[in-house]
C-alpha cells in the first residue's frame, strides 16, 4: 500500500503497512477552506508522502514521507476526539499511499465524520462520509475512484486545464459535485476565466481557498 519508501526496522515497517503508524506532517483544528464543505469546523490530518509531483503544489514539504514522524493512530484518534467538532479531514501528501482501514474503523466507532482529500491515483482504503477527488494530469485517477467521488475539485492554472476538468467530469457519478478551483499563485489571473466558464457551464461551481483569505491553517 505504501508508495513512499521509508527505510524502517522490520517491526515498524510492518506496523506502517498495517496502517497502525502513519507519517504525520501536521494535525490541527480549523475550518474547511475548499469545496463543498467550506466553512465547516474539523480536525485536519496531513499525511506525509506524495509521488504525484505537481510543480505548483503549495505543500511540497509533504512530499518526502521519511522526514515526518511515524505516529500511532491512537494518538491521531485522541487528538480528534478532544476537539469540539467530531470531524476529520484526511489530506496530504497523498493519503491513499497508506492503509487507512484501521484509522477509519476506529474513528467510525467514535461516530467521527471523515472527509478524504485524494488525487485518486491509488486504491481506496478506509471508510468515508465524503470523498473529494482532485485529479492531477501527471498521474491520472483510477476509474473506481472517479466513481466513488462525492466531489470533483479540479485545479485550474491555465485555460488548457478546462478540458482536463471536463474529461474527469464525464467519468464521475451523476450526483458528484463539480468544482473548479484556481491555483493559488495564479488566482488573480485565472479566476475571471473560471467565473466566465462556470457562468457558461452551470454544472460547475467555483471553489476558493477560503482559509488563505481568512489567514487560517
Summarize the structure.
With 217 residues, the chain is α/β, with parallel strands linked by helices. It has one domain (10-214): TIM Barrel, CATH 3.20.20. The chain is built from seven helices and nine strands; from the N terminus they run αβββαβαββαβαβαβα.
What does this structure look like?
- It contains 7 helices and 9 strands; from the N terminus they run H-E-E-E-H-E-H-E-E-H-E-H-E-H-E-H.
- With 217 residues, the chain is of the alpha/beta class.
- It has one domain: TIM Barrel (Alpha-Beta Barrel), CATH 3.20.20.70.
- It has a 9-stranded mixed beta sheet.
- The mean pLDDT is 95.
CATH H-tier superfamily: Aldolase class I
Q: Can you give the helix content as a percent range? A: 25-40%
Gyration radius (Cα, Å) is 17 Å
Looking across the biggest beta sheet, what order are the strands in?
Answer: 3-1-2-4-5-6-7-8-9
Q: Spans of 5+ residues with little confidence (pLDDT < 50)?
A: none
Named CATH topology: TIM Barrel
CATH class: Alpha Beta
Number of domains: 1
Largest sheet: 9 strands, mixed
Named CATH architecture = Alpha-Beta Barrel
Form type: globular
Topology summary:
Layout: H1 10-17, E1 21-31, E2 41-47, E3 70-72, H2 73-81, E4 87-92, H3 101-109, E5 113-118, E6 130-133, H4 143-148, E7 151-156, H5 161-169, E8 177-182, H6 187-200, E9 204-206, H7 210-214
Parallel strand pairs: 2-4, 4-5, 5-6, 6-7, 7-8, 8-9
Antiparallel strand pairs: 1-2, 1-3
Helix pairs in contact: 2-3
